[in-house]
Amino acid sequence: MLQNIRQAMMIIETERLYLRRLIRDDAEFILDLLNQPSWISFIGDKNVHSLNDAKKYIELAPMTMYERYGFGLFLVCDKETSTPMGLCGLMKRDNLADADLGYAFLPQFWHQGFALEAVEAVLAYAKNTHSLSRMLALCKTSNAPSIKLLKKVGFRFDRDLKLFDGEENLQIYQLLL
Q1: Domain for residue 68, yes or no?
Q2: Torsion over CA of 57, 155, 76 and 26, rounded to 10 degrees?
Q3: What tens digit of pLDDT does each residue of 47-91 get?
């Protein structure tokens, strides 16, 4: 039954992946992903340190975004096995004029083209489903693999952004859809 619910929530399908909305039952995966050293280093510590924290994160971040904007971060799953691999989707931040692209994958799924496949599908979704004409992406200057992926799909550097004193600068990239 849970598998049927998950498939019913599918938003995007690609050759190897499907992307769907997060549900509270995804808390174990979220707990793992948000505590990966790469997440903490490149995205930041979201203080998700228990299954209860992960459930609250899902409710307060992605689920709220779905309700407010009709989009958010989606769970990226292997199409054949339904194994959760990462997150990819759209976010709308109060301090930015346009929606921005976000993605993160567990390390065992890096360097296999999954992020590229998910990102391209989400960009098409942004244009075709939500009629977005411009996308942003935020990235730490030290995150060379993410910057490489953004450039590969057509994003161009826009400007530096300093959010907090003492923290690494973010770079903002933009893409016209």
Answers
A1: yes
A2: 0
A3: 999 999 999 999 999 999 999 999 999 999 999 999 999 999 999
3-state helix, strand, coil in the chain (%, to 5): 40, 30, 35
| 6: in domain | yes
> Would you call 9 exposed, middle or buried from its count of C-beta atoms within 10 A (0-12, 13-18, 19+)?
middle
**Whole-Å CA distances, 117 to 19, 57, 143:** 11, 25, 19
Question: For position 113, what pLDDT does the model report?
Answer: 98
The distance from CA 137 to its chain's CA centroid, rounded to whole angstroms, is: 10
Number of domains in the chain: 1
CATH code, domain with 46: 3.40.630.30
**In this structure, is residue 169 part of a structural domain?**
no
Phi-psi region of 122 (alpha: psi -120 to 50; beta: other; left: phi over 0): alpha
Could you give the CA distance from residue 75 to residue 39 in angstroms, rounded to a whole number?
15
- Does a structural domain hold residue 166? no
pTM for this structure?
0.92
For residues 87 and 73, is the Cβ–Cβ distance under 8 A? yes
